[in-house]
Amino acid sequence: MNDADDIVKEFLVESYENLDRLDRELLQLEKNPNDREILASVFRTIHTIKGTSGFLAFNQLGAVTHVGESLPGLLRDGQKALDRDITNALLAMVDTVRQILASIEATGGEGERNDDGLISRLTRLQGIPEAVGKMEAPREGKATAAAAGASEIGGAESSHSGAGRSESGNSMAANSKAGNTKSESSEVSSPRITLEEAKPSRTLSAPAVVAAQPTAPAAEAGDVQRVPQAAAGPSAADRTIRLDVGLLDQLMNLVGELVLARNQILQFANSTEESGLLVPSQRLDLITTELQEGVMKTRMQPIGNIWSKFPRTVRDLALGCGKQVRVEMEGQETELDKTLIEAIKDPLTHLVRNAVDHGIERPEVRQAAGKNPEGRLALRAFHEGGQVNIEISDDGAGLDQERIRNKAVQKGLISAEQAGRLTDREIVNLVFLPGFSTAEKVTNVSGRGVGMDVVKTYIEKIGGAVDLQSKPGEGVLVRMKIPLTLAIIPALIVTSAGERYAVPQVSLLELVRVEPGAERKGIEMIHGAPVYRLRGRLLPLVYLNRELQVGVERPGVKRCDTDNQAVNIVVLEADGRQFGLVVDEINDTEEIVVKPLSKHLKSISVYAGATIMGDGKVALILDVLGLAKGSRILAEGREHNQVGAAEAMAGVANGKQKLVLFTGPGGARMAVPLELLARLENIPGTQVERSGNQWVTQYRGQILPLIRVSHALEERRHLPPGDDVQLPTTAMLQVLVLEHERQSFGLVVDQILDIVESTLEPQSPATRAGVLHSSVIADRVTELLDVPALLRAGEQYEPVMGPIRSEES
Amino acid sequence: MNNARQFCTFYLDHLLFGVESQKIQEVVTYRELRPVPLAPPVVSGLMNLRGQVVVALELRRQLELPDRPAHLPPVCLVVHAAGGAVCLLADEVGNVVDVEDETFEPAPETLSRRLRSVILGVHKLEHELMHVLDTDEACEVH
Fold first, then answer.
1. Residue A798, phi then psi, degrees to nearest 5
2. Whole-angstrom Cα distance, residue A271 to residue A281?
3. B142 touches chain A (CB under 8 A)
4. Could you say which of A599, A607, A620 has the minimum Cβ distance to residue B83?
């Protein structure tokens, strides 16, 4: 009984794989209807399922596949031409077979089914199968004989039986008549054939399938065609084995343990005088590293595994909504960890469905817009910097920014005032906000609760990032960045309050050590918000001890913020923003095995997991993103960076905002959000040049447009003529290099004062253009500048000034 | 025999507690715990249990008992909980006892709602009362 169960299980696994392949092949066929190779393969696949189902007495399955296999045979011989009806019928058959298999898997039986409709549809489509079958037999037999290298054994005698091929093989190797010794026939022909043969030969014992004789030879004909190719080397089926994923997971865990033990031994070997231990421990190190890589590789899967389902999904969807969509794939072989593959499957499927359902227009609409009536959906994957990039793009209508804007306001996700200020790029990324869906009607594929916010959540959960770009009329590009693996990662070990923490190296930019004494003034504590001038750029600092609320009072433990200690700054990047993490000590980099935290600690956002160190002690892995959010380096909540910046400008963020204070014309106090600030620069007046009618300076290999606060805020017609043309004197200019919508520009101010953290309660409305509102900040009335408005004003007045992309973009 | 159950017992602030023995994975001596800053007070830290990182919960805090005096090293009861193994810290381990359902009484209404969710009731043993812990509840952090 157990044996039978095993056979059924194996049959199911194998058949599912075959069906997936069949889906793929049928779609390929639609493009190349005359590819005999594919036709033969399609036939063989259906035939294999039919054969085994007969053997296992799944009669319904046998009946469906029996009529199903004849069609490809006719197609291959040119008796019929492939058309949409045939493809649809064959795909419907694949679906039916899947349903039956699912029923077998769930209940052990086929269940009560009535597939007569499908069967008659398939029969109707094929016309006169008998005649074809007979015509084919002799030709097939000859081919077989040739392959077996025995030309005197004619095809005629083999044609009397469906198992003609194995018999001809056997009659050479041994004089046995029965077609059951598969191993012998394999010696004569090739391994490939043996594998294919194994199933058809079983059909002999199944009465249901004997009726299939006229078409059975065609399967072998397909095999024979493959011989030259297969003989060149073992086929994929021979070189691979099927493994239980649980075993791989177990192996991975064990390798994780081994890495830990290796770390321990290395630590010990380095500290001991015993030289005899050194060499073996180094060998152990090498072998462990290689083993780790090997095991990691076993878990790596090409992304094509999940993509392979998309052509079918897209085809069905496109047919359903009357569209024509072509799927293009690039980089299917890009590999990533199995767990990650599974994690991105649903979000990817959602994006693909979205693109077809909403993105790509109907053919007539496309034609009217001057596009190819056939839409294009492109999937692209590639490795870059230890990450996997996945792009999904379509050439559809793109996102309707007005509609998104209105929808977001209507749903109360942003205020109308904010909405007016968002850029196009920010607008399209609003679709990632929870509760957002522009689908006006619930269709078959959308509006079922899986929104873009879920996509974002999924991707972020595995340490990835997702971004969306769209040009109206030109389509949508969604780009994801996914880490390669999650199991073992390189990390920097740091100490804070006597305990070790691991910082994933992905987010690490550089390490800075500020020695006590002279260099000390690199760190400035302004109004409680510490910043460090890193190459002239202000880097907000986060003290790990304070964030974790540890160690500050502990006696004997080194404190990082005392004046006579060196300060260790770990420069990190989270979601595009940089910040410095101040720690007590920086220890080492190490490969660590990520262990998940129990659910009790999941809610603490600053930890990504735990690991076991070389000495057997547990260390916590810091979540850089969580740390940045917790310390308000990143605006809290889940809004995207740009949206966060927009909110900061609108002054509606609930919490405190970091602001750069400076004086403008007439000593008036002004502020811009720190988030927009890229750098503070002193630029000598001599380096300012004119380009058209605006000021520019050469800045880090780019041309940086300069906007003077004094001019930007005044009505231009009130300015004395010629004033704008005058170049500044040789005095140093204080410039805030601001970045907005990936454009950089320099704001020339009178004096930079301070960086403060303040709530932005608008206390009086703006009195002039370019100012959002006035507030009392640090006991002084301060105007908050409207940076986008300043930029727009600058652009209108100075049309020569193209937007300059910042080098980070 | 069908209504007999086996309990592992342990003490907390001189009170006898019991956990169904099949829920206990093992009892290990106390080892150094890795404190987790920002964690709820019930979480004492993380423990390396043969390569697995296991969270240790202080049962005294979970049961609103006074903290354990510093000179008393706790023992660790590793139990199977819904989300994997969890280590529960107790004062000391007692015997394994077999009890019949007849000696069980549910927790009195006078216990706080929170405690009544953790303490299912008591078994009236010959000399003392054994508090029966709901392991899954005891492993929850609220």
1. -120, 80
2. 12
3. no
4. A599
Q: Nearest-CA neighbor of A295 among A356, A250, A237?
A: A250
Across the interface, do B46 and A618 touch by the CB < 8 Å criterion? Answer: yes
**Farthest-apart Cα atoms in chain B, separation:** 47
Please tell me which of the candidates A260, A600, A620 has its beta carbon nearest to residue B51.
Answer: A260
Enumerate the residues of chain B whose CB falls inside 8 A of the CB of residue A604: 36, 38-39
The rounded distance, in Å, linking the Cα atoms of A45 and A66 is: 12
* Segment (H or E) for A21: helix A2-31
* A611 touches B: beta carbon within 8 Å: yes
Question: Which two three-digit tokens encode residue A608?
Answer: 């990504």
Alpha-carbon span A654 to A664, nearest angstrom: 27
- Radius of gyration of chain B from its Cα atoms, rounded to whole angstroms: 15
Q: What are phi and psi for residue A629, nearest 5 degrees?
A: -70, -40
CB of A533 within 8 A of CB of A480? Answer: no
**3-state SS track over A599-650:** CCCCCCCCEEEEEECCCCCEEEEECHHHHHHHCCCCCCCCCCHHHHHHHHHH
A598 touches chain B (CB under 8 A): yes
Cβ-contact A772, A650 below 8 angstroms: yes
Write phi, then psi, for A648 (nearest 5 degrees). -60, -40
In tens, the pLDDT along B34-86 reads: 889 888 889 999 998 877 788 999 999 988 888 888 888 899 999 988 777 89
State whether residue A257 sits within 8 Å of chain B by CB. Answer: yes
Lowest mean per-residue pLDDT among A39-43, A183-187, B113-117: A183-187
Pairs of CB atoms within 8 A across A/B: 59
Helix axes A84-107, A2-31, angle to 10 degrees: 160
Mean pLDDT across A523-541: 80
B129 touches chain A (CB under 8 A): no
Which residue, among B132, B121, B140, has the nearest Cα to B8 in the 3D structure? B132
pLDDT in tens, A116-152: 788 888 787 776 444 433 334 334 434 343 344 433 4
Cut 0.90: pTM above it = no
**Residue A544: how many CB atoms within 10 A of its CB?**
27
> Does B141 lie at the interface with A, CB-CB under 8 angstroms?
yes
Which candidate from B34, B43, B51 shows the least CB-CB separation from A600? Answer: B43
Mutate which of B48, B52, B86, B137 to test chain A, going by most A C-beta atoms within 10 A? B48
CA atoms within 13 A on the CB side of A553: 1
